[in-house]
Specification:
266 residues, alpha/beta, Rossmann fold, six-stranded mixed beta sheet, 41% helix, globular, binds adenosine-5'-triphosphate, Putative ABC transporter ATP-binding protein YbhF, nucleotide-binding, ATP-binding, ABC_transporter_ATP-binding, P-loop_NTPase
């Protein structure tokens, strides 16, 4: 069987520092897979390598059976990527942001209109389509960015902490959108997050990273059972394997990320 994503012995060093220290995992077609871990665990470095934005030091990555090193161009067409940093332009409307991406893809006028319309409906942004994005709520911006990332109809969507800095209601709408997308389009979704409750509710399987290594992977149920505690939550699993408390907001790290996003809109 060909996996959507297969990672073999992947290593990334920055000078002497090993940010990703030899990891292995695979993701099935149509699966929602969560990469969890404390700050600095190596999650972003890993997904940047998957998204062809960063060359690995060693190891191999296959996307639908294609070696990323040899078929970067083809792989990029199969992937949509929503980075942590803002990728929507606050001075344009939601529609204009999507139009810009559609033009970059060189879609014809009819096809552009069709796809943008389809996405605005799917992402529940029809009513806000002609409002400036800087007037959007955080959840709406994230949904628009998901739209930008899937305009070219990729098979796999990669998201780097898409709900960080959002309030609980907005986080809920983003996760719901992802669930709906998967159901309606069969997209494979790889997501990094440190919101354990949300990962548990949405991800079929998760991998927990710590200091560049995958310290546990499986379904949330399997991982909870492995702790030996009958009423364990995924948060307990996280603490069990990383020795770290899950950050749920208000940390310097999270604040910095949120601020960076807000600055982009001012
Ligand atoms: N370009 C770089 N040069 C040097 N070190 C780097 C570089 N990029 C990342 N690192 C280091 O690699 C480690 C892993 O970083 P990474 O961003 O992948 O972690 P993360 O799990 O995504 O955490 P976060 O939630 O903070 O984004 C960190 O210690 C980071 O400082």
């Amino acid at each position: 069987m060909v996996y959507s994503i297969e990672v073999q012995d992947l290593i990334k060093r920055f000078g002497d520092y090993e940010a990703v220290a030899g990891i292995n995992f695979s993701i099935n077609k149509g699966e929602v897979f969560g990469l969890l871990g404390p700050n600095g665990a190596g999650k972003t470095t890993t997904i940047r390598m998957l998204a062809t934005l960063l060359p690995p030091t060693s190891g191999r990555i296959f996307v639908e059976g294609l070696d990323v090193r040899r078929h970067g161009g083809l792989v990029r067409r199969l992937l949509g990527y929503v980075p942590q940093a803002l990728s929507a332009d606050g001075t344009l409307t939601g529609y204009e942001n999507l139009l810009l991406f559609a033009k970059l893809l060189r879609l014809g006028k009819g096809e552009r209109e069709r796809r943008i319309d389809e996405l605005l409906n799917l992402l529940n942004l029809q009513d806000a389509a002609h409002k400036l994005v800087r007037e959007y709520s955080g959840g709406m911006v994230r949904r628009l960015e998901i739209g930008q990332a899937i305009l070219h109809r990729p098979h796999i969507l990669i998201l780097d902490e898409p709900t960080v800095g959002l309030d609980p209601v907005a986080r809920h709408t983003v996760w719901n959108t992802l669930k709906q997308l998967r159901e309606e389009t069969g997209l494979t979704i790889l997501i990094t997050t440190h919101y354990m409750e949300e990962a548990e509710a949405t991800c079929r399987r998760v991998a927990i990273m710590n200091r560049g290594r995958i310290v546990a992977q499986g379904t949330p149920e399997e991982l909870k059972r492995a702790t030996g505690k009958p009423d364990a939550t995924l948060e307990d699993v996280f603490t069990f394997y990383t020795g770290d408390q899950v950050e749920t907001g208000g940390s310097f790290h999270e604040l910095r990320k949120t601020r960076l996003r807000v600055q982009r809109f001012n």
